[in-house]
Amino acid sequence: MYLNNKLFTNVEFYYYRSTFRKQLNETIVSSKNITNLIGHGVSTSCTQSLLSGISEFNERVPLFEKKGPNLIGIRLTTKEVVAVDSSKVYFGNSEYGDSSGVASFSDSKHALKKALLEFYERQSFIFHWINQESGKSLEKSDLGSSLITSTYYKMMEKTFNEISIAEISIFKGVHVIFIMGISSKMKAVGLGSSDNLQSAIANALREACEGLAGRDPLKISWNKNIAIFDKNSNEEAYLKLSPQKLKRIYAFLFKVSPKIPVVNKRTNTTDFWECLSINENMHHIHIIAVAIMTKDPRIKEFKIITSFGGYSHMYPPKIPEQERDSYLIDKALNKQCFDPIPFP
């Protein structure tokens, strides 16, 4: 794992290790100079927690750099080279931005796939929120023994009285899962994506558990004072809600949802890449990959954007008007919501 050479002089590093087996360990890496430049890693594995926190921090560092007005991107379906406005990638050149569609890895193909999954995941989530569209619900009896007996599901079940799961992908070849846990004192939400349905659920479970690190569900209250950097954010909208209010707000995702069984449903790697053209044609978008230069040439990083259509970020109040009808088939029939998405 590459550590930024300024890691121990310009950032704060926190690691919280559980004294018990199969409990969550948490790593937080935050910049002393740049607000909202944070890496966060939570896992039952000490090593994975550290790697995740440091990787996420290193992944976000380049996004805060200022660049010239134009970048070069590649349309993945045609290999066409296109000019890209740098404000779509780098925060220093934009009014508002986030890391949606950004991922890194040690080799380009895996980094690109991770970025595409991140892109599909966030675009699907924003679409459902803005248009208040229901997903497809999953029950515990649908999940299968491997998921029900997993550490993360057991942790959720021990902490929450209610666990709600919905499949919300609007793209072919990928599954996007939203999970919500609710109890009288605690709440949690998580997103996960994969070309394998069970892996997508496992990823969402893992993310939903990130807010549980070091917390005793018998002692903590949902409205515990938590300092956040950005007062106009999805995170702020999430933190100020009680568990029951959060449940009511997300009720639309599970309303009259057809249940779908979880089998070993997999879209193989070839299908995943072939679905790029299908998704472009279906939604009238061009999917563009932009390479992001990192301090370590061994790390490959990409951001996935669209040249037109799609959402440029995940904060609805600042989504440009021309993007608001993205992915809609009948624009006249959808009631749209542009409130912040309550998501940590």
TrEMBL record:
Record-annotated YcaO domain positions: 73-296
One Pfam family matching this protein: YcaO
Domain of life of the organism encoding this protein: Bacteria
Protein name from the UniProt record: YcaO-like family protein
Annotated source species: Bombilactobacillus apium
